[in-house]
Amino acid sequence: MDYNKFGLVNTTEMFSDAIAHKYAIPAFNFYNMETLNAILAAARETHSPVILAVSESALHYMGDSMLMGMIMGAKLTTRDCVALHLDHGASVDACKHAIDIGFSSVMIDASQKNFSENVELTQRVIEYAHKHNVTVESELGVIAGTEDENTSSKKSLYTNPNDAYEFVKRTNVDSLAIAIGTNHGAYKCKSEFKGLRFDVLSEIVNLLPKTPLVLHGASRIPQHLVGIIEKFGGKMENACGIPMDDIRQAVSMHVAKVNVDSDSRIAFTAGIRKTLATNPKMFNPRDYLSVATDMVKQNCIDEIKTVMNSANKLK
Ligand code: G3H
Ligand code: 13P
Ligand code: ZN
Known about the structure:
8 strands, binds zinc ion, binds glyceraldehyde-3-phosphate, binds 1,3-dihydroxyacetonephosphate, alpha/beta, 12 helices, TIM Barrel
């Protein structure tokens, strides 16, 4: 299916503008109508380009036709500057499948494989994707985390800048996810977390000044939202994210895409917990889901304005 039919764009122009003007394209994960609406409303209200990220498990949860039906229902045009992106595709087949159903961008995550296998899998995805004008992200180095089966890894292996240079030279990949100390999930401040390695980032940028770089695991884990979850019966002890200033600094140093999933999950859950706990008689899901949707939207607006610097960047 041609993604142009859905009013989607690939990431080429969004990344070149982001690099030229030192901002990042937000990549927000979604998994249902509410989170999709929240992200699109936030992007529209702030006039920001946006990447709608769907993990393999989220695609499985929504189903191909339900997902693409929702994207069709969003009535996007290319002026909205929205890409639909497969997040952490674990295989060439998963990437091909996403392209076949209308995704405009895919990630092949072969970061756990050895260097040459990673190169080879990336080349195979690029060969198919570029025929369909779909852009490709790869990952080098391992971003630690516990929540995603495909990416789970106990420690963070920083990206080696020379490997990154060699990888891009061999594959000509459209964007590269790098490991500089971010990690997936809501518990980023375990003992091994020592802040971001801006020295590694700066070496990579010097070697690859034209390659859009991607930060995964960049949620801030807003403490006011964690507080709401805990106040209304949830348990998120020691939940902790990447300091906002660190992400802002990375964005100012050429990072062109910043991935956020956990923050939206937390905002959504906080909205539901608070609304149900304070309205014990409420049982219409539309009532509490609309509060949760609005909390995700407000969090996305906040990230767009304060972290990504991508507000008012639509042409
Ligand atoms: O980086 C991974 C995302 O947070 C997706 O996680 O597979 O649980 O949807 P998920
Ligand atoms: P967070 O868990 O920090 O939101 O990371 C999301 C991510 O990297 C999705 O690919
Ligand atoms: Zn990720």
